[in-house]
Amino acid sequence: MNTTLLDKTPQTQITSKPTLIGLSMDELKPCLAQIGVPDNMLRMRSKQLFHWMYHYGIQDFDLITDMAKELRQKLKENFTLDRAEVIERLVSKDGTRKWLIRTAPGIEIEIVYIPDVARSGALCVSSQVGCTLNCSFCHTGTQKLVRNLTSQEIVMQLMIARDDLSEWPTPFEDRQITNMVFMGMGEPLYNYENVARAIEVISDGEGIAIGRRRITVSTSGIVPEMDELGRLGVMLAVSLHATNDTLRDVLVPINKKYNLEMLFDAIRAYPDLSNSKRVTFEYVMLKGVNDSIKEAEILIKLLRGIPSKVNLIPFNPWPGSNFVSSNHATIKGFSDRLFNAGISAPIRRPRGRDILAACGQLRSESVKKRASAIRAEREESLNP
């Protein structure tokens, strides 16, 4: 494994000036008005600034070539283009990258880049610090909710990844990050407003320009917000994991509030579903829990009439978990049964397990053991 660790000592804050990173074009206008840009110039100047921030990824106002020196100086005096602090960077043996960033004291977020998926690579971002859902198989869910992330903190995650991948200016061919998935820490629909504002920035053609059909928002089933999500035009993913309410109440406790009937009514009402805009269902394979052929048969009935894909995810172990992953033969049999019924059911290849970057393993550094410590403990137990 190629692992890069950065200095863990918190950096001294040099300036209290606010960063503009993460703001939409409309949100930039009052900032420019504050430093004296006249009303009749706000639209043009905000568009210029937005383009330099999100197409070129600049971190220095002096790099802007189509603004007068006086305006650039005013921007420097009042604002920054700072990203969040990167306090750890890990690279897995399979090429997966994970960053731990700190956006404010006590606010730490993990971001994961997975190469060689979709057209090129996908970035998995977080929407909350911690989580309230307490899904029993999920390491992230064992961390209490600290707070929602702001739209700026969400956009910063993508900016930091693109900085590290040297993906500026925004390429329109041969991108490394072609897709973005809200599948990191937290429940996105419990932070809908900030997620929606971040998507506005990320999808804007003047900047990063990731199309909304290449942005997927995953939910455990927050039914009241699913209709609003549909209006954003993004792809929907549902953390399903069980085919009956009794089991799902245990695995995904939000099911006690929004049961499978309510959830599937909301899914069927999701706008513009088609073979080109399918719902992705995430299904973690747990040995002896939800992996029987009987469950596969029930799942087929649940998905009838819904353009869908089911990602079968081998359970990724984490310290203290009581679950075990289904073996490959069982997962393959489950997958084959769904494929035979006309439902795409690929088996997701675990990525980044050695750096605790796989599905369900993300957790704030402030409350978790380091991956290196866990590996050392495992090696010690194998070689007493």
Task: Describe how the helices and strands are arranged.
Blueprint: E1 3-4, H1 25-34, H2 39-54, H3 69-78, E2 85-91, E3 97-104, E4 107-117, E5 120-124, E6 128-129, E7 147-148, H4 151-164, E8 179-182, H5 192-203, E9 215-219, H6 223-231, E10 235-239, H7 245-251, H8 260-268, E11 279-285, H9 293-302, E12 308-314, H10 328-340, H11 371-382
Parallel strand pairs: 5-8, 8-9, 9-10, 10-11, 11-12
Antiparallel strand pairs: 1-2, 2-3, 3-4, 4-5, 6-7
Helix pairs in contact: 1-2, 4-5, 6-8, 9-10
Overview of the structural elements:
By secondary structure, this protein is of the alpha/beta class. It folds into 2 domains: 25-78, Orthogonal Bundle (DNA polymerase, domain 1); 85-382, TIM Barrel. The protein has helices spanning 25-34, 39-54, 69-78, 151-164, 192-203, 223-231, 245-251, 260-268, 293-302, 328-340, 371-382; strands spanning 3-4, 85-91, 97-104, 107-117, 120-124, 128-129, 147-148, 179-182, 215-219, 235-239, 279-285, 308-314. It has a 10-stranded mixed beta sheet. Strands 6-7 form a two-stranded antiparallel ribbon. The longest helix has 16 residues, at 39-54. The radius of gyration is 22 Å and the shape is elongated. The two termini are 23 Å apart.
